[in-house]
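Z., the sequence and structure:
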Amino acid sequence: MKWQEVCEDPRLKDLPYKIELNEYGKILMSPQKVYHSIFQGKIQNILRKLNRTGEVFPECAISTVKGTKVADVVWVSEERYHIIKREIECSISPELCVEIISSSNTQEEMEEKKGLYFGQGAKEFWLCDENGDITFFNHSGQLGSSSLVPNFPNKIDL
């Protein structure tokens, strides 16, 4: 299955789950808990306040070598925004991709997503755990704080 087929299938449009595709075109679904949505909204709001340029949005489909992955929150520069804004799935990753770890996620999955997003051109990858602790990464490894959004807190409270 291709991402466009998933997006256009009327049977899937009202599913209350996050959908991604693996490298074989199979649909992966992950139900989310309320805390996940709360962190997602708070991260978006803080990013908008601290970074006045570019665009911030949730649930961004990104084409990778292992299928379509969906970042929980992204920030993209104006330049990349003009490339991806009409695409079905991003051909190039937003500069910043944030994943909120759910109880259904494994550390291996998050490591894989980090590599896949970097492989598509991401500059930073952030992980938010179930306690709201944020870990920042670039291509070289873990950072003490974000280079793209230096004032972003390393803890989000529910």
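The two ends are 37 Å apart (CA to CA). Residues 32-143 form a domain with the tt1808, chain A fold (CATH 3.90.1570.10).

Let me know what you think.
H.
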